[in-house]
Write a structure and sequence with these properties.
41% helix, 2 domains, Aspartate Aminotransferase, domain 1, Aspartate Aminotransferase, domain 2, 408 residues, seven-stranded mixed β-sheet
């Protein structure tokens, strides 16, 4: 059985092993073969250059439209310099968890600066977004509570609900009427959990409406802004700022630092009481080594750039608008997204794979996303833009797309 990141289950052929114990190498080999047979086997590409729009992958120079480095900061010289200086000042390893002796000055300053940036009372830095989601949900919810999840939520939110042992219900993508019905019927504490920007579709969750529902029904709203922080809102403050709403109770805001910020790590923002509760009880915060302090220093520099260089977001918006106009003219099917995630729906998995390899022949890297990651019949190219893309590079992409079957 294979469960993809949205919890969609793909049945693999059962292993016909005669013994009751089935954890043998033969069985693992059979399972791996089944993945290959179903076209679900995945291979890693070898990146031999820094992350960026022009990369070397498997010895081939490629123009990439697939990273989450939306502002082009992953290899920014200023961020690199801050990392080096941080290592000189604080060493490499943090040496302990935050509650022992791993919590250093750079972590502390980063938390204060992030809280100020997103407009929250307080922030807690976690080692990854995956761990932040698991830590928050398990700390606040448990047996006898209910978690409502958008059908398209990221794997880490799905896993967070599973590990918390709460009941969880998934509602159709963005279906507010269904959410309200579930809230009305609930007789246990409830948390709504949603991606703020959906990672495979690029659209936004209806955050103002979800905040209103959370208030009306006295539930938590956990919003994971992995793809909105840095790219949306005033000075990149994220999806809530984009909608002109603040981060007040009962909102729990998750930001990740490995995407638009170009570094690594994540944070939870909320009220002082919420953050203190997480600090005392979130197991993925307590029982793990603190992020290297030099990474926190690099993130502080990247935050300074995110805030001050609005031109990055303006350029990104222009690229997105020109791309959408160009693709619409070709008659290809776009999704309703205004963010840096711009999927083109091609239908069958074969069509998506064929498009990816045709683009690759022209030196352009765009991944094909197939079922079960997305619903059957909606296999797509998932194009992502970065502020580091030039207009000329966008034109190269558009010319290549114009030669796909179905484009005119
Ligand atoms: C990438 C991502 C995460 C995980 O963040 P990491 O810091 O990479 O662990 C969580 N949620 C969403 C929506 C993401 O896209």
């Amino acid at each position: 059985m294979l469960v993809d990141y949205k919890g969609i289950v793909t049945k693999l052929p059962a292993c016909s092993h005669p013994r009751p114990r089935d954890l043998t190498m033969t069985d693992l080999d059979q399972k791996l073969q089944a993945l290959r047979d179903e076209n679900l086997f995945r291979e890693r590409r070898l990146l031999q250059s820094p992350q960026g729009v022009e990369v070397t992958i498997d010895n081939e120079p490629l123009l990439a439209f697939c990273s989450n480095d939306y502002l082009g900061l992953a290899a920014d010289p200023r961020v690199i310099a801050a990392l080096k200086q941080g290592a000189d000042n604080y060493g490499v390893g943090s040496g302990a968890s935050h509650l022992v002796t791993g919590h250093s000055t750079p972590h502390h300053l980063l938390e204060e600066e992030l809280a100020d940036f997103v407009g929250a009372e307080r922030v807690l830095v976690f080692s990854t977004g995956y761990m932040a989601n698991i830590g928050v949900v398990s700390a606040l919810m448990g047996r006898n509570s209910l978690i409502l999840e958008d059908k398209l939520n990221h794997a880490s939110l799905i896993d967070a609900a599973r590990l918390s042992r709460a009941d969880s219900r998934r509602y159709p993508h963005g279906d507010l009427a269904r959410v309200e019905q579930l809230l009305r019927e609930a007789n246990t504490p409830v948390m709504m959990a949603t991606d703020a920007v959906f990672s495979m579709d690029g659209d936004l969750a209806p955050l103002p409406e979800l905040v209103a529902l959370a208030r009306k029904y006295n539930s938590w709203l956990l919003a994971d802004d992995a793809h909105g922080l840095g790219t949306l809102g005033e000075h990149g403050q994220g999806s809530f700022s984009h909608f002109g709403i603040g981060l007040d109770d009962p909102t729990i805001y998750i930001g990740t630092l490995g995407k638009a910020f170009g570094t690594f790590g994540a944070f939870v923002a909320g009220s002082d009481t919420l953050i203190e509760t997480l600090l005392q009880t979130a197991r993925t915060y307590i029982y793990t080594t603190a992020l290297p302090p030099a990474v926190a220093e690099a993130t502080r520099e990247s935050l300074r750039i995110v805030k001050s260089e609005d031109w990055r977001r303006e350029h990104l918006r222009e690229l997105i608008a020109k791309f959408r106009a160009g693709v619409t003219e070709m008659g290809l099917e776009l999704m309703p997204s205004d963010t840096a995630i711009q999927p083109i729906v091609l239908g069958s998995a074969e069509a998506a794979l064929a498009a990816t390899s045709r683009l690759r022949e022209q030196g352009i890297l765009v991944p094909a996303i197939r079922p079960p990651t997305v619903p059957a019949g909606t296999a797509r190219l998932r194009i992502t833009f970065s502020a580091a893309h030039t207009d000329a590079q966008l034109q190269r992409l558009l010319s290549a797309l114009a030669e796909l079957p179905g484009a005119k």
